[in-house]
Every structure is written in C-alpha cells, then in structure tokens.
Design a protein that fits this description.
Blueprint (H helix, E strand, L loop, with lengths): L1 H34 L6 H31 L5 H11 L7 H11 L5 H26 L4 H24 L2
Length: 167
C-alpha cells in the first residue's frame, strides 16, 4: 500500500514536470516563430527566449506564492517556497537547445536560417516525444501514448500554421 502511494506520487511529479517542459517548449516555439524573419542577430533571439521564459517563470512563482497560502490557509515554509521556485523555473529548461543552436549561429557554425529551422524542428520532435512520455507516465496503451505525442506536437504545428496563415 505504501509502495503504491510512493509510485503514485513519483508518477504525479514526473507528469507535472513533463507537462511543464511541454509548456516551456510551446512558449519557446511560439517565440522562435514570431521572431523568424524579423531578426538578423542571433543574440537578440537568445535574449528574447531567455528573457521571456524568465519573466513567465517569475510571474508564475509570484502567483503561486500568493495563491497557495490562501488555499491552504497557512504560510509556506522555506522548503516549500524553494520547491515552487524550482518547479516554476523548470520551463526554462525548454530553451536550452534553441539557445545552443543560436549560439552556434552567432559563432558562425550555423546560419541564422538554419538555427531557426533546427530549433523549430527539434521543438516539434521534442513535443512529440514528451507527449509520448506523458502517456507512458499515465500508464496508457501504446496507441494512446502515440496519440498523446501527436496531440502535443499538434500544438506546435498549430503555431507554425498560424504563422504561415498570417504572414
């Protein structure tokens, strides 16, 4: 019984962490797509991605630290506050690959167009795999895992499609 509860808690934490990563990747992909064609400097893209995700994480920390004590009717301990900060900043991890690609572009190893292309492609692929992993964590059947991956990547494709439609 205790082991089942521990597994359920670990599964829930992995699910939340994976969902946060998907959220961060979708935001990063939207930023990359919105900047494509309007920017000529890869450092501007790096700072835009990092700065946007940083501000979003700070805003979510602020909201979380305000609402949790009201819901639980008690103050958060320092450990709980640290856990909130750690959890909310996990969306920043979604920007590591695009930032690396745009750094390669800045130093001349990739063109800016290639960095945009690879960032978008890897974001869509990562969305698919994280969606499949989320299905795995939820103990779904194989075809349901695949569907969850397609659904997650579908959000990314929707962003790309909106950019193409409203150029």
């Amino acid at each position: 019984m205790v082991l089942r509860r521990i597994r359920h808690f670990q599964s829930k934490r992995r699910m939340e962490y994976t969902a946060r990563k998907i959220y961060g990747i979708i935001i990063t992909l939207a930023l990359i797509i919105s900047l494509e064609g309007h920017v000529t400097d890869s450092f501007f893209v790096i700072f835009s991605i990092f700065g946007s995700l940083f501000v979003i994480a700070l805003a979510e920390i602020y909201v979380h630290l305000l609402t949790v004590p009201v819901k639980k009717e008690k103050h958060l301990t320092w450990e709980e506050r640290f856990a909130v900060v750690k959890e909310e900043f996990s969306i920043m991890l979604a920007s590591d690959i695009p930032i690396f690609l745009f750094l390669l572009s800045h130093f001349g190893f990739l063109s800016l167009e290639e960095a945009f292309f690879f960032s978008k492609s890897l974001a869509l692929l990562t969305l698919f795999f994280f969606g499949c992993y989320l299905g795995y964590v939820l103990n779904k059947k194989m075809y349901q895992r695949f569907f969850m991956g397609v659904l997650s990547a579908g959000f990314g494709f929707l962003i790309v499609l909106l950019k193409l439609l409203f150029k």
